[in-house]
Specification:
The protein is an alpha+beta fold. The strands form two sheets. The chain has a five-stranded antiparallel sheet. The protein has a five-stranded antiparallel sheet with strand order 3-4-5-2-6, with no helix packed on it. It starts with about 20 loop residues before the first strand and ends with a helix.
Length: about 180
Amino acid sequence: MVRLVMSDPFRGALPDAQPGLRIEAGDPGMLTWIAPFAGREEAVSAALEAAHGVGLPGPGRMVASDQARCLWFARGQALLCGPDPGADLGGMAAVVDQSDGWVSLRVCGGRHVDLLARLVPVDLRDAAFPAGRVVRSLVKHTSALLARTSEETVEIFVMRSFAETLVRDLCEAAEGLALRG
């Protein structure tokens, strides 16, 4: 019988911290894609609020509680991070466990925007992208979901198969940033 073993999606290749910048593996917990059926958005939001303290977010937004985070994922779609959504959503939404398919990492520190500006064609400065905002964009050539979780942290979600590419691109950009001083 084949025994599957979970491996580090970043293969231990995350770069060492430099002044004002850290890149670290995220741990979002269980990742569940939720797409409410037509006309069931309010019911799904109420069920999530009752179960986890978060409802469905508006476009480009993230809502969080002590138990969970819910991120806008695309039109009519959300990504629940943390707990199992529970069976209460059956019949109200399409619900798919994405935990094995997506990974996240965090870019932290005072220079995180400088680093990401080299790779992301979106203004990620605090005035344009404050905490609680989410955007679908590219990180160099990789499709990603970026979430501003605090003033000095952006969490990046990518499909697991692109984890090494994301790390390589971030490492190259970090090297260039370090050389610039």
